């Protein structure tokens, strides 16, 4: 995963991916239910405000204000797609879901989607190991943010790529990457399961796609001379970002205690509810019905929704419940995103 040569000096180093969490799914789950869980599990609920902060680390730093500015511009470029997520920089890493460091020699990488929530608050969830102000560096910043949004591409099983594996191991085992075989397999040769990628096509122009030099790909023949590194966000990147995180045009529906609201959702869709408690006490929030749902509760703090708690009941024959003390007159927003409705009955949300 180390990089010792600037991208401009030769073959560019590749981004290394930390291990992703892999849900243990029951073997009796239906294919549709399992696919929905694998596809959606790293995605954020739409409307989430992702806070990011920059870490200062000891070592051979490549950071600086111009590097940070490029990360800020990369976040803004994803936001300009009109997606429902928000990105806010905060000074304290302990207040950030996304923590960014710059460290030469450690490559560039990011945890994928909600996996960042499993990382300690003083540890980075995204790292850059080379200059981001070059054309290749700008693409790297956008690529890593794409991973943080929950997207993967370069190991798409629908690409149909047949590798000359020993040449790949040899290429990436030398500078600037210096990867051992297991790292090359994890980052390049390993294919994602078909259940874990959107659609049934591969977009070679996606910012999430790696470029490769000639001689590493046996098939398709048109890629025998290599694949150029995409340097900009593609039309398909925009389409998929808007599909998972559509622009929010209406506010959440106000919900009263003990009032039940049906969830008429397709897989991947969500419903939002505003809660203003009439009294201060402990409440429970939850869904009802045969469905896999990720449920997240936010509290309005200084005009911004901040994450309070959440529950993911996917793959289990139960309904998620949140038990939390809510304050009278404070504003909360509950967001329920559906993986899959797997039973014959309806699904509903209520707090009491």
Explain what you see:
With 352 residues, this protein is of the alpha/beta class. Helices cover 19% and strands 24% of the residues. It contains six helices and 16 strands. The chain has a five-stranded mixed beta sheet with strand order 2-1-3-5-4, with helices on one face. A five-stranded mixed beta sheet has the order 8-10-15-12-13. It has a four-stranded antiparallel beta sheet with strand order 9-16-11-14, with no helix packed on it. Strand 1, helix 2 and strand 2 form a beta-alpha-beta unit. Helix 2 packs across helix 3 and helix 4 crosses helix 5. The radius of gyration is 21 Å and the shape is globular. The termini are far apart. 39% of the residues are buried. The N terminus is likely disordered.
């Amino acid at each position: 995963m180390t990089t010792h040569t600037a991208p401009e000096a030769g073959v560019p180093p590749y981004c290394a991916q930390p291990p992703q969490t892999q849900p243990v799914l029951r073997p009796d789950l239906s294919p549709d239910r399992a696919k929905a869980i694998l596809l959606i599990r790293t995605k954020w609920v739409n409307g989430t405000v992702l806070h990011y902060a920059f870490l200062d680390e000891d070592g051979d730093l490549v950071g600086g204000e111009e590097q940070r500015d490029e990360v800020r511009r990369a976040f803004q470029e994803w936001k300009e797609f009109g997606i429902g997520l928000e990105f806010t920089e905060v000074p304290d890493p302990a207040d950030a879901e996304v923590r960014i460091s710059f460290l030469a020699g450690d490559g560039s990488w990011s945890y994928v989607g909600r996996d960042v929530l499993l990382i300690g608050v003083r540890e980075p969830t995204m790292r850059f190991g080379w200059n981001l102000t070059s054309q290749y560096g700008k693409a790297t910043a956008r690529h890593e943010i794409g991973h943080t949004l929950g997207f993967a591409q370069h190991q798409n099983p629908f690409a149909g790529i047949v590798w000359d594996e020993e040449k790949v191991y040899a290429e990436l085992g030398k500078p600037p990457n210096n990867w051992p075989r297991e790292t090359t397999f994890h980052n390049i040769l390993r294919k994602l399961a078909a259940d874990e990628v959107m659609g049934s096509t591969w977009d070679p122009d996606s910012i999430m796609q790696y470029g490769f030099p000639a001689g590493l790909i046996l098939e398709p023949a048109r890629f025998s001379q290599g694949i150029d590194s995409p340097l900009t966000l593609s039309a398909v990147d925009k389409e998929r970002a808007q599909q998972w995180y559509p622009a929010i045009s209406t506010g959440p529906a106000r919900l009263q205690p003990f009032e039940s609201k049906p969830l008429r959702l397709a897989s991947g869709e969500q419903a939002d509810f505003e809660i203003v408690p009439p009294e201060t006490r402990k409440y429970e929030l939850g869904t009802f019905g045969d469905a896999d749902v990720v449920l997240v509760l936010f509290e309005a703090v200084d005009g911004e929704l901040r994450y309070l708690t959440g529950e993911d009941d996917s793959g289990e024959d139960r309904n998620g419940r949140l038990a939390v003390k809510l304050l009278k007159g404070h504003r909360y927003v509950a967001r329920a995103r559906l993986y899959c409705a797997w039973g014959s009955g309806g699904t509903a949300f209520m707090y009491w």
